[in-house]
Amino acid sequence: MDDISQVPASAAPPLGKPLAGKTVAVVHAAWHSCGSYQVNVSQIAAYRALGARVVSVAMMDSLGPAAPEGPKWDDYLNAARNIGANRRYYSGAPTSSIFSPVFLAKAYWRLIHGDQASWLIEIAKRSPLPEDLDGERIDLIHANHFFTLPLVERLKQGKRIPVFLETQDIQARQFILRNQGGFFIPPYAGYSDMLMTELDWMRRADLCTHLNEEEYKDFRNLLPEARHALIYPAVPDVPRAVGVQIVIVASDNYANYKSLRWFLTEVVPKAGGGKVAIYGNIDQGVKKRDPALYEAHAHLFMGRVDNIALVYKRAGCVLLPTVEGHGLSIKAVEALACGAPIIATPLAFRGMNVDPSTLSNVSVAHDAAEFAQFWRKAQARADRGDTPGAMSDTRLLYDRAFSLDAYARALAGALETLRA
């Protein structure tokens, strides 16, 4: 594939409505305030742009009361009001599963050894089909993450319904990374065992779609018999940056915690008069994992905000201090969309097949000292009141590769491959 920064913006033909009169079910984890949630929002919007009626089927990834009851569902519903589906359904494994010897052996016993792949599969196996979904005539299922596929199997009810599986990275890699921040007992679950579980379920999909270059290549090698497509995700548009605030946006996951820890311990001491506001629920992750680090920098944390678009609108520069993580970074794409100058490590642009040094408003820092140097220069611009221009290289890149229109066209092309 060509470097996406070099793909010219061309006059595309009208998108059309190839899914008019059809119903698409988007099945996903009941997550919010994270990149995966933004991907789900865009999937629903893209299928609606293609003419489909779209239903959302959210699956909780832990035991609990009947969906959508309980505090976890309350948090999800409060934070996921803008998901955009024509109708929403909910499912999750009941708390009573803990009394099943089979569940204890196949799920809980494996989880305490770090086998999150088996745990999530068993959760999905025990997540009931929503009762009021029986009346839906579903024509296509777009599943997110391999571990939702047991629920997808029941959703199909024995019918021949094509299934797109959006992998969103090799999850076994994410599990190994996540396990670094948890407490488990030996013998620890290994990468190869969790990957085998992941691949076994992926074989059931009609098309595996991948949202970054790295996972596309990896999965084609791991599952050569399956059908694969590289489809960059659409990330919801944000307002053009017109402010002077220097910002970091991050949700609470272990990769973001490790990256922010590097930033606070290695970059901040070198930044002189650099100022930054850190938005997102990463504050809770830092407070939980390193209370002393949080207390030392508590004044930088703004917490979760309901409207992240306003954060980007007030931005004069976005910092992406990424030193850990796999898969395409959604917050990096959001930064592209706002068009503000960006200071980033090379890893922030992973999976995009783009050389960030070719983007005129991106400063690529290879170590903490260089990051701090670029940050000081950005602070000087902010102190002068300099605001971002109306258009930039990063905004043009977003329009070409990560806009809703680009994503909908890619999905329409994937549909054509199934019909071929």
Task: Name the features.
seven-stranded parallel beta sheet, Rossmann fold, globular, alpha/beta, 420 residues
Could you please describe the fold and organization of this structure?
This protein has 2 domains: 4-234 and 404-419, Glycogen Phosphorylase B (Rossmann fold, 3-Layer(aba) Sandwich), CATH 3.40.50.2000; 245-400, 3-Layer(aba) Sandwich (Rossmann fold). α1 (35-49) crosses α16 (404-419). With 420 residues, it is an alpha/beta fold. It contains 16 helices and 13 strands. It is globular, with a radius of gyration of 22 Å. 40% of the residues lie in helices and 14% in strands.
Helix and strand run = EHEHEHHEHEHHEHEEHEHHEHEHEEHHH
> Can you tell me the CATH superfamily of the largest domain?
Glycogen Phosphorylase B
The level of helicity is 40-55%
Query: How many helix segments?
Result: 16
User: Compute the gyration radius: what is it?
Assistant: 22 Å
* CATH top-level class of the largest domain: Alpha Beta
Spatial ordering of strands, largest sheet:
3-2-1-4-5-6-7
Apparent shape: globular
CATH fold annotation of the largest domain = Rossmann fold
| Spans of at least 5 consecutive residues with low confidence | 1-13
Q: Report the major sheet.
A: 7 strands, parallel
Strand content: 5-15%
